[in-house]
Each structure stands twice: as structure tokens, then as C-alpha cells.
């Protein structure tokens, strides 16, 4: 309370408004949405499990209870019905729509929500016990005791052959087909851009580059995309990726047909073919991938926008492009994360997997 009173005396309403805006802009819409979602879940769980709102700071026992309620063994529950999250707590969360899938939580989800809890505690100027040895040990052992295969965001990677089928489904010169063709080609060729980056792309981020000379053929058009701050980059970094050839042609064809001279590059199109002035919703990128997959005779449930990102690295591995070079375009910071897609492709077709061919 002393700290709150001191801040109240120093900060005006305009100061607080400015700081709130900076937090929202600096953090990013997706991160802020995740924090809000996690806080809502934590509050709902605390009410269901203890009958009270979240205490700030949370005692170590409550953090351990959270781990016990969310990381448990299905086999043990068949023997002991009280194992894991109590039935009344689970039913309360399901009724409110906070729980949908059966079984324990994914370890990454538990870690993320604990991290959110810790962040919100620090924002309140309080000292939590999230680094306690007891919590770290309980979390590590609980994850080890409840193995759960990690599911990819997209069941199948959109590799070059699949991308060709999706593009073939955009065969007409209609405004919608031109837009979807440009989205698919730009998202893939720019390193597998995230759906939020594609949906939020603005004309001001595009910069024409000198054409690339090719022996015995016309030079390839070239374009730089200034991504600015991304999910994995620092706020002061200007991430840049490059496009050349067909993706640049497809993008220019869309911009010309849609008569876009400023603002958002990719926009919604209504049923009458009217173009919206507002940017495309990130979820619409996944919808476009699924729709084009269905039109190409593929199972849309197996594809999402993230398949373009994993597909880029998989295709790079299939073509023998070195991982560091592929990461320069995909802008992955973690070699371990990028290599999950890259190595899967090389291992599957490598000699070690073909000893008995």
C-alpha cells in the first residue's frame, strides 16, 4: 500500500495512460492476449480449488497445488479417482469453458501459466516464490512422471509440393484468388512468416531492391520486408527478410488489383468482393490455408498457417540448404527449435533411416 500511495502521488492519469499504451504496444497483442487468458484461468482455478481469489503473492503451497492439479497420470487416476485435479474443480472449470480437453495439461502450458503468474506478481511490486527449490523439483518430477508427446501446431508441414497444390487452387484472376496466392507465396518464401506478421504487414514495410541478375534469363524482381519487432526479436531490432522472383510478382499483382497504395497489405474481402480498409485477422490466414487445402483435395484438418513456417524449414532441408542459411530467412533465434523441423526431414531421408532399403 505504501508503494501504491507513492506511485499515485507521482503519476498523473495521463502518465498511466501513456504507460499502459507503451505496455500494450511493446508487448504485442498476442502476448497481452495470452497474459489475459492465463490470468482468467488462474483466477477461475483458484476460486474452484480454494473458494477464494488468487492471493498476491501466492504461497508456495498454492503453487504446488497448481502443479498437482494439472500434471497427473491418467493410469493412476483409474486406480485412485482422487488423483490429480478433484472432480468438482474440474467440473467447475469445464462448465465455465476453461477446460476442454480431457487428461492432464501439457507441461508447456503449466510452465507458461506459472511464468504468467510470476510476471503478474512482479508487476504488483511483490516477491514471489516461483524460483523455490520445492516448486522446481515438483515441476521437474511431475513432467517426468507424466510423459506427453508434444503435438505440432500443424500436423503436416506445407512443403513445396503441397504449396503447389494450394496455389493451383487459386487459379483465377479474381481479387480473392490473387490475395490468397500472394499470402501463401509471401508467407512461405519469406521464411515461413507467422500469421500475425502476415496479417499485420503494411505497405510501409516493403522496400524494392535491385533486381537479381540470372544467367540467360531476365533478372528476378527483389523485395525487402522490414518486419520490425517480431515475437522472438528485441524491440530495437529491425528484422529484415528478402523475397525474389514469383512471390514478388504475386504480391505486386495483388497490390495492383486491390489498388492498395498505403496501409495494410492483406485485407478482408466480403461476399460481394468489396475490400476492407482494415487488416486481415490473423486467424483468417489459417482459414485461407485450410480452405485452399480443401479445394486442392487435401484434408484441411491437417494444415494450419503454422504449416507454412515448419514447411519452409522442412523444404530447406529437403533441398540441402544449410540450417544457418535457412534460419537467416526464417529468423528463428533458437537452433534447437529450428532443427526440430530441419532434422526431421534430413533424418527421415538419410542413410541411417535406410539401412534395410
Would you give an account of this structure?
The chain has 357 residues and is mainly alpha-helical. It folds into 2 domains: 2-145, no CATH class; 160-352, Intergrase catalytic core (hpI Integrase, Chain A, Orthogonal Bundle). Helices cover 54% and strands 10% of the residues. It is built from 16 helices and 5 strands. It has helices spanning 2-10, 13-27, 29-50, 60-70, 74-79, 87-95, 107-123, 133-145, 160-168, 175-189, 195-199, 246-258, 282-295, 306-318, 323-330, 335-349; strands at residues 206-214, 217-228, 239-244, 267-269, 275-279. Strands 1-2-3 form a 3-stranded antiparallel β-sheet. The protein has a two-stranded antiparallel sheet with strand order 4-5. Strand 4 and strand 5 (275-279) form a beta hairpin.
How would you summarize the topology of this molecule?
Elements: H1 2-10, H2 13-27, H3 29-50, H4 60-70, H5 74-79, H6 87-95, H7 107-123, H8 133-145, H9 160-168, H10 175-189, H11 195-199, E1 206-214, E2 217-228, E3 239-244, H12 246-258, E4 267-269, E5 275-279, H13 282-295, H14 306-318, H15 323-330, H16 335-349
Antiparallel strand pairs: 1-2, 2-3, 4-5
Question: Could you name the key traits of this structure?
Answer:
5 strands, mainly alpha, about 350 residues, 16 helices, 2 domains, 3-stranded antiparallel beta sheet, hpI Integrase, Chain A, two-stranded antiparallel ribbon
Question: Helix amount, in percent?
Answer: 40-55%
| Percentage of β-strand residues | 5-15%
Quote the average pLDDT.
Answer: 84
What integer value in Å does the Rg equal?
24 Å
Just give the CATH class of the largest domain: Mainly Alpha
Q: State the domain count.
A: 2
- Our count of helices gives 16
Provide the CATH topology of the largest domain. hpI Integrase, Chain A
Strand order of the largest sheet: 1-2-3
Q: What oligomeric state is this?
A: single chain
**Helix/strand order, N-terminal first:** HHHHHHHHHHHEEEHEEHHHH
Q: Main beta sheet: strand number and arrangement? A: 3 strands, antiparallel
